Amino acid sequence: MSFILGVVISALAYYLEAIHIVMLSLGLIALVALLVVWRIVMVRRRARRGRR
């Protein structure tokens, strides 16, 4: 009984760790995407000012 409980707890721990890693990677991807979009917007604004 205790062996099954230990296996379940270890499986839950690995599952939570995997979710944590996925959340971190998604957060990093979102940050990079936001930075890229911000750079594009800034370049477009500079281009508009340059045309004027």
Give a quick rundown of the structure.
The chain has 52 residues and is mainly α. It is built from one helix and no strands. Keywords: Membrane, Transmembrane, Transmembrane helix.
Protein model, in words:
The protein has one helix at about 1-50. With about 50 residues, the protein is an all-alpha fold. The protein has a domain at about 20-50. It is rod-shaped. It starts with a helix and ends with a helix. The mean pLDDT is about 90.
Which terms would index this structure?
membrane; mainly alpha; transmembrane; 0% strand; rod-shaped; 52 residues; transmembrane helix
- For the secondary structure, the number of strands is 0
Helix fraction bin? over 70%
Net shape: rod-shaped
Mean pLDDT: 92
Multimer state: single chain
| Discrete helix count | 1
Which sequence of SSEs, written as H and E, runs from N to C?
A: H
From the helix content, strand content and strand pairing, which structural class follows?
Answer: mainly alpha
The separation of the N and C termini measures 76 Å
Q: State the low-pLDDT regions, or none.
A: none
Radius of gyration: 23 Å
Q: Major β-sheet, in short?
A: none
Estimated share of beta-strand residues: under 5%
Topology:
Blueprint: H1 2-51
